[in-house]
Design a protein that fits this description.
The protein is mainly α. The chain has a domain of 40 residues. The chain has 3 helices and no strands.
Length: 66
């Protein structure tokens, strides 16, 4: 009886089922995590390096050439 329960076919099917269910349950969890981080943000992450460099408008550049 033990041989039929733990046959090689059943073990591989069980391992595949566990892997599939783990993947299917982790994908929504990871998506929820990224959604929460994007809404709430990470504290102490803004140290000023994310600012964009100053831009030069056509009016400022034309005035600096004179």
């Amino acid at each position: 009886m033990t041989k039929t329960i733990f046959s090689e076919k059943n073990v591989t099917f069980l391992a595949g089922s566990i892997a599939y269910n783990a993947f299917v349950s982790l994908v929504p969890l990871i998506l929820f995590f990224f959604l929460a981080v994007s809404i709430v943000g990470i504290p102490n992450c803004s140290n000023g390096s994310s600012r964009s460099p100053p831009t030069v408008s056509p009016h400022r550049s034309a005035g600096s050439l004179k």
